[in-house]
Amino acid sequence: MTRLERTSPLLAAEAKGPAAGRVKGKDDFLEQLQSKPLQQLEASIASLTHQERVVLEFIVRGACNKDICNTLNIEITTAKAHTSRIFKKLGVKNRVQAAVFGLWTTLLARATAVDAAPATHFLEAETSAPARANTALASGAIRASALPQ
Q: Full-prediction pTM beyond 0.70?
């Protein structure tokens, strides 16, 4: 079982798609992403400009370049330039990988932040970060707009 599957079965299922078998490239990306420490993932997000982070939020939400252009009032070439730079800075090949990168970084950062905070109730102390992250994702508490800025 991979770290992503242990931490968030919902995100793992979404990232793997309907086919449960191994898909070369896709599983390699997930394994590489999971092996990176949170600080490295956050540094990649921090390397994005403000506008690139905004565009990444749209990508995470599934928006196409045309939607991004219409909402941000930018040219299609500008949106394409932003997405290309995002892919290069994050080390991803496509929009799906960029979205998974953004979501995984957010999920891992939130789970780590909760682990670092002192427990105020005995049940909180016994609940692991992956379990809390899973619950937050399933309940909708973690949204694409929560990308680190």
A: no
